[in-house]
Design brief:
By secondary structure, the protein is an alpha+beta fold. The protein has one domain (4-176): Nucleoside diphosphate kinase-like domain (Alpha-Beta Plaits). It is 48% helix and 14% strand. The protein contains eleven helices and four strands. The protein has helices at 12-16, 20-29, 44-50, 55-72, 76-80, 85-99, 115-123, 136-140, 145-150, 165-175, 189-192; strands at 3-10, 33-40, 105-113, 159-161. The model has no long low-confidence stretch (mean pLDDT 97). Bound molecules: adenosine-5'-triphosphate and magnesium ion. Adenosine-5'-triphosphate (ATP) binds at residues 60-61, 64-65, 92, 96, 126, 145, 148-149, 154-155, 157, 160-161, 163. It comes from Candidatus Roizmanbacteria bacterium CG_4_10_14_0_8_um_filter_39_9.
Length: 197
């Protein structure tokens, strides 16, 4: 088994729409073990620490806007005053900090075989309009980059899911204290992953 930890956050749009139970069910039924769980008003600093402050991350986020605006023929400079993806990424991070404080969020730490690939698969594409049917973002949102950016807000894509093993570990430690993380076996674990004979 390749056990990994991942962090899930049901963002304020998911909480305010009453989707916590429906979303969590999908991760539980696929076999992931919930090892930490809390509902809280996220502190500003935790949100700032959660999303990277690196040029690589800012650039990735800003590039989404550039790609979408080019496709739709929208003038990015008119909206953002710049064509620099890093500067646009910084603006989006500011929006995320405000958005995450709109309501409490539900934070869950999960663990299981190939957990990172599973949480990303079940969450779907970051941009809801592109997310496949059957994924959380595809089933519950159809937001687009151009609408979100025109309204000076991040994509309302309902869920956060860790996107690498390192980030999974880091994010679980950021949101949970050591004694808030639990170790136990799900009843179906031995059936799914029998010990080597
Ligand atoms: P998350 O980290 O929330 O799971 P992700 O890994 O799919 O999402 P990131 O690139 O880390 O995507 O971006 C973090 C969040 O910022 C996205 O989930 C989305 O809400 C928002 N976001 C990213 N890029 C843009 C953009 N260009 N315009 C508006 N919002 C964006
Ligand atoms: Mg991310």
């Amino acid at each position: 088994m390749n056990k990994q930890k991942a962090l899930l956050i049901i963002k304020p749009d998911g909480v305010q729409r009453g989707l916590c139970g429906a979303i969590l069910k999908r991760f539980e039924q696929t076999g992931l073990t919930i090892i930490g769980f809390k509902f809280l008003q996220a502190p500003e600093q935790t949100i700032r620490d959660h999303y990277p402050s690196t040029d690589v991350w800012y650039g990735k986020v800003g590039q989404r806007t550039l790609t979408n605006y080019a496709k739709k023929g929208i003038d990015v400079k008119k909206q953002f005053g710049t064509e620099d993806p890093i500067e646009i990424g910084k603006t989006v991070k500011g929006w995320l900090v405000t958005f995450f404080q709109e309501s409490p969020v539900l934070v869950a730490a999960v663990e299981g075989h190939e957990a990172i690939e599973i949480v990303r698969k079940l969450s779907g594409n970051t941009i809801p309009i592109l997310a496949a049917a059957g994924t959380v973002r595809g089933d519950y949102s159809h937001d687009t980059i151009d609408l979100a950016n025109a309204q000076f807000r991040p994509l309302r894509n309902i869920i956060h899911a860790s996107d690498s093993v390192e980030d999974g570990e880091k994010e679980v430690h950021l949101w949970f204290k050591d004694d808030e993380i639990f170790s136990y076996k799900r009843a179906d674990e031995e059936l799914m992953f029998p010990p080597q004979r």
